[in-house]
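Give me the fold.
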Amino acid sequence: MNTGWTHTTVLLDEAVDALLSDAPPAGPASPGRNFVDATFGRGGHSRLILSRLGPADRLLAFDKDPAAVREAAQITDARFTIRHEGFEQLATLPAGSLAGVLMDLGVSSPQLDDASRGFSFRFEGPLDMRMDTSRGQSVAQWLETAPASQIAEVIRDYGEERFAGPIAKAIVARRQERGPISTTTELAQLVADTVKTREPGQNPATRTFQAFRIFINAELEALQHALTACLDVLQPMGLLVVISFHSLEDRIVKQFIAAHSRAQYDRRAPFATPAPMRLEARGRVRPSATEVAANPRARSAIMRVARRTVAA
């Protein structure tokens, strides 16, 4: 069924160039190289990667979203495989087996534009926000019983919202008076009624919706697990490419690369030989003005690249 939803992949050429242009060659025991698209989305990166791989190379993709997995089924290339799992499952792959890993951490346009998914305050829909609609608790279900203190903590920590406390109290008061919030527009209106000031051009509910989506999908925890797994699954000189879209994600990626781009000293044993650096930072890339003009959702994107060092 043609829904009319489209998705423009951000930093498409830049990300694939970073992943493939300087990737290590296949080893003597392997006929080809293995790459991972850790967040398939709607397949923009995967399709371009496949167009540039050699005949013996392989591409494995991960995605929690059943809609993304259905989209991936349209790819008939025998070199391609999709797993209906989150990218934290990178840890299940063999050590040193990958020449490169690409992570695009953004929510896809079809997810945002499909009202039934509940990601956007722009459309009336159920307050869901799950990446994987086949399992887990929706935001509406969580808000039915969550205490104000937990709701405030989520909004503050994941949305960086300074009105987290008043919003949380308003959600609980509404629940007690008229029953729990069940739709996106109900939540957006409640936040708008509670937050009296906001940055120009930003909907008052933006930070709260971001916070609830990150929390209900455990996005930051999954990112931490996936990054750590890359230290093991990337082969020497393998490449890590990560595109993030908000400051919480980018901070995690930046600090992770920085921490592993220097020798690690054990303060408990100051005279011990330090553990060698495991990553080499290779810089960051922002979308061009031309790309942002054509796709405003690209404006907050930051791509960071690192290479796995030879040292274990």
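Residues 1-5 have pLDDT under 50 and may be disordered.
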